[in-house]
Amino acid sequence: MRVLAAVLREFNKPFSIEEFDIGEPGPGDVVVMVKASGICGRDLVIWRGGFRNLKPPLILGHEIFGEVNGRAVGVFGAITDGTCQYCRAGKENLCVNLQFFGEGRPGGYAEAVIAPASNVFELPDSDFVKYAAAVCPLATAIHASKLGGVGPGVRVLVTGAGGGVGIHTIQYLRYLGAYIISVTSPYKADFVAKYSDEVITDREFSRKVRDVDVVFEIVGAATINESLRALKREGVLVLIGNTEGEEVRLVRPALTIMREQRIIGSAAYTRREVLEAVQLLHKGVVKPVYRTYAFKDVNRAYEDLINNRVLGRAVLVF
Ligand SMILES: [Zn+2]
Predict the structure, then answer these.
(1) What is the distance in A from the centroid of ligand 1 to the CA of 210?
(2) Among the listed residues 313, 16, 3, the one whose alpha carbon sits nearest the alpha carbon of residue 165
(3) 163 Cα: distance to centroid of ligand 1 (angstroms)
(4) Domain of 97?
(5) Do residues 148 and 95 share a domain?
(6) Looking at the structure, do residues 167 and 112 belong to the same domain, yes or no?
(7) 285: three-class secondary structure by DSSP
(8) Do 178 and 110 have their domain in common?
(9) What residues have a C-beta under 5 A from ligand 1, the ion?
(10) How many A from CA of 71 to the centre of ligand 1?
(11) What's the predicted TM-score (pTM) here?
(12) What does the pLDDT look like over 119-149, one tens digit per residue?
């Protein structure tokens, strides 16, 4: 079937809005009419050419919300085989055959998406934009919080706190009762302060804060060395993102050795965590923070994201 889509024809170049053949639904598939699609940090890394196994043309997007026969639905962003040792252990985010929408198969920057029916779940209400803005970041935060052992009173430093993942993460950390130290850019500071115990806008933030229990490293290469300086002995740095896709260099490995710090990766989220995120949004526990763009203005959305002009998530609406 041919649908209107934003097609990435060349890395680092504007998307082309065109009719594109996304294939035909097979047995067990459904066609989701897309109503809102979130733009993930992961998409920006792909757009820059950071995933070496991917080749254009690509239709990006794994944060897909819309309708199937008039029912409000969401799509789990990745397809898993359900049979590997990780899937069987309930850790399908580590599936050995994991395939994200927008990568191995056409994603949500299009009027319609073909998905296995088993990947589609019902939404409790039809506020698609809310879910497109915050389900992926919030599910990410839920997963990372478990890995980092975050609970009441735990001091957590969050880098990139004003970005799409960050602004929803700090709200979730507050819900857990953690003490939140946010690192963000000056123009986002006032807003971020609403959900933080402390806000730091200094690039050299380890001068202002020390001995945190946990770091949520959302930015990656640009901040990780400052984060490690601020992290206590036996502290945990949860590596959630590396937004520029750059090489990460440990400037002072001796510090991590001497303090016995742990650096652990956090790989997306499970289906259960997605459904947990949906409920928190539905109940209003976490408020979605976003800016919407008409689907055809996807290139403007990217320009704003790259220039750090979007508070929270950018969402494409159809
Ligand atoms: Zn995402």
Answers:
(1) 30
(2) 313
(3) 12
(4) 2-123+288-317
(5) no
(6) no
(7) coil
(8) no
(9) 40, 136
(10) 23
(11) 0.95
(12) 999 999 999 999 999 999 999 999 999 999 9
